[in-house]
Each structure stands twice: as structure tokens, then as C-alpha cells.
Write a structure and sequence with these properties.
This protein has 11 helices and 13 strands. It has 346 residues and is α/β, with parallel strands linked by helices. It folds into 2 domains: 172 residues, Rossmann fold; 153 residues, Glycogen Phosphorylase B (Rossmann fold), CATH 3.40.50. α7 packs across α10. The longest helix has 18 residues. It is globular, with a radius of gyration of 20 Å. 44% of the residues are buried. This is Glycosyl transferase family 28 C-terminal domain-containing protein.
């Protein structure tokens, strides 16, 4: 079909919203659509989104410190400027601060909700059951959601940022993480991404793990670009227990084939990337206002405390069997096809 203008609304903290949105955006842009991603993540100014998205996709970064009224005004201005034919809203059908609720009924465009698990208290308090009726299509990307059985809801596989052919080989991934390809020891990676405090806490966990493991396994602290790097893009030293600074790795999915045990939190991207690549995961369920990480994690993945996290990660260290992702399905590609089909039938 001919290229159309898309606006993907991905407001929200951390990296989950804009990473998922960018997975969709780059697929849509490759199909010839002109796509704008709108995000207010504190990570967005430092992450090279445009490099990953490629031609035809653009990023509109909003200051995360804006007031509710300023967010409303900014969103309205972006809608007026982009004039999308497709509006894709990630997670929050009313908008992050409710600013979309009065706008959606009057918008003459295809409206798509990226619908994933939400805290039941939020669903009840803001009458989300009514809010989803403003959307022509609900896409459920790889996990259950409150209205996954809605007549306009369609499920896809998880939306990941990279295609399988873009993942590094095990040898190249280990080299990217500072481990020689011929080094037979298992590699442990500690992911920090939820917010700046959690990124720094990941450094402490990495240091504790390295002290426990000694020479048995190298431990790497991974973090996306952000304020913990100096202006030259080099990692600063972490003063906690003399641990080295983080490795600036984004997208982390690219190096996952080189990781034997992944330690992190139960966010959407971390969990889905670990599962798709067959990487053993041990994770904390971080507290979130809308997301329920404990629901997403399997019992064997979930640690209740930092001490249990370290203990269980150490116990899982061992040779990783060769993993293949022959059954990998690109949920983002399928989502683009479903949206195009909805446009043609409108």
C-alpha cells in the first residue's frame, strides 16, 4: 500500500515504551511509511534512536519534566504538525496524563492501541474499559492484557527492536563485551535500564556478583547511554566497591547471544529479549505504577531480594548450550501488516 503518515505515542518513563515503539517504527518505515515517534523518556536524549530507526522515521523528544498542562499542549502541537493518518498509542489509551481522552473521539485517523498488561487499579480508576473503545485496533504484543479478548484485539509475538539477522554472533558479542572469543568461561551480564538509580544499583549488583564468582566467570554491567557517561562517551568509574563503570551497550539485544546468564529486572524488553534468545534470566520485580513485573516473570526467574538475586545468579552460572532462534517471529513486522490491513478495510 502507499506510504502513510504514522505518529507513535510512546510517553512514559524508562526505556520500555520507546524501545517497543521504535521496533514498530523501523518496520513501518521499511514499508515506506513516514513515522514519527514521540517520547518523553529521560533516556531518549542520549540514545541514538535515529541511527537504529533508519530513513523514514523521526523522533520527537519531549522534556520529561513538563507539567501536565504542558504535556497536553505539546501533544496537541505534535498532532497538528504531523497530521498522521495512523495514530499508535503505546499502553495508555487515555494518554500518560489523560490528555488524549478528550481528543480521540474527534480525531479522523486510524487509531491503534498497543495493549499490554496494566495494573488493575489503574484500569478500574480511569475506566480503561471505556477508553479502549476509542481505538479501531488493539494490538497485544506478546503478553496477556486486560482487554486481550476484545473483538478488535489481535495478538502478535513480542515486538523487539532488532531482527534476528542483526544479532551478533556469540563470538562477536563476547568480544563486544570485552571477553575473548576463545575464553571458555560463562559470561554474566547485569542490565541496568529502568531509571538512573536502578542503572547505578545494577553496578553494585555486578560488583557483588564478580566478588562471588571470582575467576569462574566475567561479569559485565550493561547500561544504555545516559548521564553516567562523560562527554566523550566513556564509562565513568563506579565508586561502589571499586567496580568498573558500565559498558555502554544499546540495543542490548545485539549482544544477547554472548551472554550466559542475564541479571536484571522484569521489564518488557529485558524479559522478552531473554526469552527469544534463550538466555537464562534472574530478575527483580521492580515497583511500577502501571506495570506488574512480578506477573511477567516466571517463578524460576524471579528473585525477591538483592541477596537472593545474587545467590540465584551464581547458582545458574555454567556452560550455556548452543541456542538457536529458528522459531523467532517478528511481532513488530506482523503488527505493521495488521495495521496496514486495517487501513485498507477502513
Amino acid at each position: 500500500m502507499r506510504g502513510t503518515r504514522w505518529l507513535i505515542y510512546a510517553l512514559g518513563g524508562g526505556m520500555g515504551h520507546f524501545t517497543r515503539a521504535c521496533g514498530l517504527a523501523r518496520m513501518a518505515a521499511r514499508r515506506g511509511h513516514r513515522v514519527t515517534v514521540m517520547t518523553n523518556s529521560a533516556f531518549a536524549p542520549d540514545v541514538p534512536l535515529e541511527e537504529v530507526l533508519g530513513p523514514g522515521a523521526f523522533v520527537h523528544r519531549i522534556n520529561p519534566e513538563l507539567s501536565k498542562s504542558a504535556v497536553r499542549e505539546t501533544v496537541e502541537c505534535v498532532l497538528d504538525g504531523v497530521r498522521p493518518e495512523v495514530l499508535v498509542v503505546d499502553t495508555f489509551p487515555r494518554g500518560l496524563v489523560g490528555e488524549l481522552a478528550p481528543l480521540l473521539p474527534g480525531l479522523r485517523m486510524a487509531k491503534v492501541l498497543v495493549h499490554r498488561d496494566l495494573n488493575p487499579a489503574y484500569v478500574a480508576k480511569f475506566n480503561i474499559a471505556e477508553a479502549v473503545e476509542d481505538f479501531d485496533l488493539l494490538l497485544v504484543p506478546g503478553e496477556d492484557a486486560p482487554f486481550a479478548r476484545h473483538p478488535r484485539a489481535l495478538r502478535t509475538a513480542p515486538w523487539l527492536l532488532l531482527e534476528q539477522e542483526e544479532w551478533l554472533s556469540r563470538a562477536r558479542a563476547r568480544e563486544r563485551l570485552g571477553v575473548a572469543a576463545e575464553d571458555p568461561r560463562p559470561l554474566v551480564a547485569v542490565m541496568g535500564s529502568g531509571n538512573e538509580l536502578e542503572v547505578r544499583e545494577a553496578g553494585d549488583i555486578a560488583a557483588r556478583l564478580q566478588a562471588e564468582l571470582g575467576e569462574r566467570a566475567p561479569v559485565r554491567w550493561l547500561a544504555p547511554p545516559g548521564p553516567w557517561f562523560d562527554v566523550k562517551g566513556k564509562a565513568a568509574r563506579n565508586t561502589v566497591r571499586g567496580a568498573p563503570g558500565p559498558l555502554c551497550v544499546w540495543p542490548a539485544l545485539a549482544v544477547m547471544p554472548g551472554v550466559d546468564v542475564l541479571v536484571g529486572a522484569g521489564g518488557y524488553n529485558t524479559v522478552q529479549e531473554a526469552r527469544v534468545t534463550g538466555t537464562p534470566l534472574v530478575a527483580l520485580a521492580r515497583a511500577r505504577r502501571y506495570d506488574r513485573q512480578a506477573v511477567r516473570l516466571r517463578p524460576e526467574e524471579l528473585a525477591r531480594t538483592d541477596a537472593e538475586l545474587v545467590e540465584r545468579a551464581v547458582a545458574r552460572v555454567g556452560p550455556r548450550p548452543e541456542q538457536t532462534a529458528s522459531g523467532y517471529t517478528s511481532g513488530a513486522r506482523d503488527a505493521v501488516a495488521l495495521i496496514e490491513r486495517a487501513l485498507l478495510s477502513a
